């Protein structure tokens, strides 16, 4: 079986060597073991393209919907959404099986929020099957997008075998010029408003002692101006170290994660978090808000779930994690990651494709 997988628009491929979120390549790798070949779909999504490919491809797997319709004006975006909806109907007429994975409730940046909701209503109605990564996500699909049948809960897989993990804690800290005896908190992820980096900096400065450090590993690719604001705020405290790059190679993650005692991911909104799964894959205790899928991913044995509505909760969590048995929490974190096995996930996705 061959399927089109609509992943990151500029990824250029679905191999582990491509500069993209490795979720897509990891799923493609294990589906290939089940004789299902994934190839990147074309976001132009034209009728001629759909018709020409139909003899060789039987599944259209949609992920990030906004790339099908978002443009620089509302008028252009409406036109593209109408065209996408029409072509999706046509794809169904041609006999494609349409699958949609709900990675987030809505896009993180929303210039035209009504269109974001409408697009999800359309796809939620037309898709043959829908995948959510947790029970909370499935409930959202039912409540917001009126999806009732053929709704499958299949988790997001781990990153244990994608990131090298050979460097020691001491060597990692030496490379990052972090004190060997400090307690190091780590944030890693794109510099985007919903990630809560500024909130973390403020909470850290409120409560953290002199023997701690906050390391921030962040990309400037999405919002350079926001990244500049983060850097300016961090520069006010010499205990905060910011490391930026347009794209961090996979082999770099071990340096930052192995240098850390705990990962802190203070999202203001989230459904599925690949960052949290990456931290667990390195056996790192995590501090995360009780939002989206996170309460189904993380429990008290492997970190701290804090109440995002409590203004003091993040600061309290930064203090509380230091009183935990970090070795035990790290082992629990790694075991949780190991349970998110790609082979089992691919088998379940294959069943959705072949139904």
Description:
- It contains 15 helices and twelve strands.
- The relative contact order is 0.12.
- The chain has 355 residues and is of the alpha/beta class.
- Strands 2-1-3-4-5-6 form a six-stranded parallel sheet. A six-stranded parallel sheet has the order 9-8-7-10-11-12, sandwiched between helices.
- The mean pLDDT is 94.
- It is 42% helix and 16% strand.
- It has helices at residues 23-32, 47-53, 66-69, 74-94, 113-126, 135-145, 169-176, 197-207, 224-234, 253-259, 274-281, 294-297, 313-320, 326-338, 342-354; strands at residues 2-5, 37-40, 59-62, 97-102, 129-132, 151-153, 183-190, 212-219, 240-245, 262-264, 286-289, 303-306.
Number of strands: 12
For the sheet with most strands, the description reads: 6 strands, parallel
Q: Termini distance?
A: 12 Å
Helix content: 40-55%
Average predicted local confidence, pLDDT: 94
What letter string, H or E per element, gives the SSE order? EHEHEHHEHEHEHEHEHEHEHEHEHHH
Side by side, the strands of the main sheet go: 2-1-3-4-5-6
What is the molecular shape?
globular
